[in-house]
Amino acid sequence: MDILAFLRERAGAFRCPRCKRSLADCKLTQLDHAGQKYTVEVTCRSCELAFLVALEVASNDEAETDAEEHGLETAASAEPEADPISNDELLELHQVLSGHSGPLTALLKERAND
Known about the structure:
alpha+beta, 2 domains, three-stranded antiparallel sheet, 4 helices, 35% helix
C-alpha cells in the first residue's frame, strides 16, 4: 500500500492546526514503516507547521473484529441519531439566549417546564 498516496487523497478534508488552511497540498514524508504501522511527517505549505501522524492500517476483517470486541458499530452501519440543526432552529436558539441572563441550567429548566 502506498500510504503517502492514500494520505494525499484525504488530506484536503483536514485543516492545519495553526493557520486553519486546507492540507490538500501539504508535504508528506514517510519517516517509519513497520508492518502495518506508519509514521508520517505532515508539513503545511502555507505556514510551514510540521507535525507527525502515526497510522496503523487494518484489514476490513480485523477492523470489524476489533469493533465487535469493543462494542463499537462500524461507520457504514451507524445511523444518524437526529437530523442536523436547521437555520430556523439556530435563529430561534439565538433569540432565546439573547434574552436570557443567568446560568444555562436555569434556562434549560425553564424550557423543560414549558
